Amino acid sequence: MNYQALAELLFPDVTGTPEQLEQKFPQRSLPEGAVVTRIGPSPTGFVHLGNLYNAVIGERLAHQSGGVFYLRIEDTDEKRKVEGAVETLISAMNYFGVQFDEGADAQGDRGSYGPYRQRQRKEFYHIIAKYLTAQGKAYPCFLTEQELQEIRDKQTANKENPGIYGIYAEANRNLTLEQVQENIRAGKSWVLRFRAEENEESILVSDAIRGELKMPRNTMDFVLLKSDGIPTYHFAHAVDDHFMRSTHVIRGEEWISSLPMHVELFNTLGWQQPVYCHTATLMKIEDGKKRKLSKRKDPELALAYYQQEGICPEAVWEFLLTLLNSNFEEWRLANPDADYHDFKYTIEKMSISGALVDLDKLRDVSKEVLSRMTAEKLYQGLLAWCQEYRPDFAELLKNYQNRALRALQVGRNGAKVRKDLENWKQSCEFLSFYFDETFRQQDAMPEEISEADRKEFFRKYLESYQHSDDSSAWFAKVKEITEQLGYAVKPKDFKKHPEDYKGSIIHITNMIRIALTGRANAPDIWEVSQALGEELVLSRLKKWL
Ligand code: GLU
Question: What's the rounded Cα separation, in Å, for the pair 103 and 174?
């Protein structure tokens, strides 16, 4: 067979050469050791946590090393494509603070290694496809759907590996140039297949996370171009990561089984293989058992979930970093005030057993992250989230900005910062008592205090109330009234001799807290009062007279 003639027959319009592509997309000039990597999501409309998980690794590796991190849209699968999905993806990545240096973006493309959407790269795939055909390494296969099905059935019956190889490949591999010509003239559709070696020796592929993987060499005549001329994932991966000059390919472990095909392609084309990093699948524990997160059952697999729940991007990052590097938490304890970007992320510390997405853990991380933010930063984050998800609360935050800022400062003045805030959604609920518009009487007054005592207490309290009192002057007054009413000022006295008192100061302070906040569980009364402001304090207390 004259392979050159076959290549011309299949790709008459392709004039470019691999050399030209090499020149068009030269090696990047970057510092020694710089990592170039990407995420390559498919625009299915569903952005999942795994996309961000891999993005965090890629972004860290690239930016820690002075390299490049880019976004490539893998849109070869027309069936899975959803309108607006690219925009959704880009905006989700944006929301979570993933910074791409180049790649697809909302306006089009940025960078000189594009286009960054696979459907726009057909010309490049065809140049390489033509080259492989001319080298005798690829051939057109005219098997129809029905023939393929018959082969599958036969293989199942014979308990053989599925796929096109050996005897199943023979007929199409050995077509003469004239037969191919005739088929094409007759309008038969074809795919381009890789011509594999029938050599089952094993290969060693090194994976930066998993070490050396021993695998059987590829013997499949796998598809390079589908009948519409669009490449398969395998072919696009090799062509794109080569010409976009990725040094590292970070992707889910579901791709490990395809590695022999990828290795074969890189070797055949004489290209340097990237460093592979196959990341662990996201798992959860259910009924004591670990299982894969499922799109159908687990809302937390969708990145949108974290947005909707108002879990701030920093918290999601820190949570992912705790999943990704076993030493992150230790580092965080030692560096409580550092920016998470200062943590030195390493592939060596990655685990290969499934990454556990534990929402309780996420909540703890998120509380920590929020507890480190200034009131001003909390305000900005909360307001931004509310503008999209709780416009009513956004209005309150804007109308009572000073009060909101003071409220966010409550519990942060002492050495030990309170960790009341979990996420933006819960923060709205938590802060709701600071505004009459959202105040709710959630808890009842302590039963230990009679109505008469309650009225008496609040009358005296209001009489002596000075909004400018500092915390100790304020508390001295509370103690004084407590004593006057026959309640124990020291809780332990009440514990020892309950018969001597009507109740304890704890009942009294609970009562004040409930009057002011509507709940028994709330931060320091004096601090809350300062945040509420004199007018609100007085009006809420007067209701109980
Ligand atoms: N489109 C592939 C996926 O969504 C990307 C894998 C890769 O990063 O190479 O799984």
Answer: 41
Nearest by Cα to 113 from 129, 124, 102: 102
Ligand 1, pocket-test mutation among 36, 42, 118, 256, most atoms within 8 A of CB: 42
Nearest CA to 131 out of 226, 15, 238 is that of 15
Which ranges of 350-504 would DSSP assign to H, the alpha helix?
359-372, 375-389, 391-399, 401-409, 424-431, 451-464, 471-484, 491-496
Quote the distance between the C-alpha of residue 145 and its chain's center. 38
- Number of folded domains in the chain? 3
Q: Which of 279, 297, 322 is the last residue of a domain?
A: 279
Could you tell me if the CB of 251 is within 6 A of ligand 1? yes
**Do 485 and 403 fall within a single domain?**
no
Both tokens assigned to 465: 């109330």
Find the 262 Cα to ligand 1 centroid distance in Å. 13
CATH code for position 136: 3.40.50.620
- Domain range for 455 is 451-542
Tell me: do 260 and 409 sit in the same domain: no
pTM of the model: 0.89
- Which ligand 1 atom sits closest to the C-alpha of 38? 8
- CA-based torsion, 67, 113, 247, 29: positive or negative: negative
| pLDDT, one tens digit for every residue, the chain (545 residues) | 899 999 999 999 999 999 999 999 999 999 999 999 999 999 988 899 999 999 999 999 999 999 999 999 999 987 777 788 888 899 899 889 999 999 998 888 999 999 999 999 999 999 999 999 999 999 999 999 999 999 999 999 999 999 999 999 999 999 999 999 999 999 999 999 999 998 889 999 999 999 999 999 999 999 999 999 999 999 999 999 999 999 999 999 999 999 999 999 999 999 999 999 999 999 999 999 999 999 999 999 999 999 999 999 999 999 999 999 889 999 999 999 899 999 999 998 887 777 899 999 999 999 999 999 999 999 999 999 999 999 999 999 999 999 999 999 999 988 889 999 999 999 999 999 999 999 999 999 999 899 999 999 999 999 999 999 999 999 999 999 999 999 999 999 999 999 999 999 999 999 999 999 999 999 999 999 999 999 999 999 999 99
Instruction: Please work out whether the CB of residue 74 comes within 6 Å of at least one atom of ligand 1.
Output: yes
State the distance from the centre of ligand 1 to the C-alpha of 73, rounded, in angstroms. 9
Query: How far is Cα 363 from Cα 368, in angstroms, rounded to an integer?
Result: 9
Give the number of other Cβ atoms within 10 Å of residue 333's Cβ.
9
Token output for 287: 């009924």
Q: Which residue type does 310 have?
A: G
> 516 and 420: one domain?
no
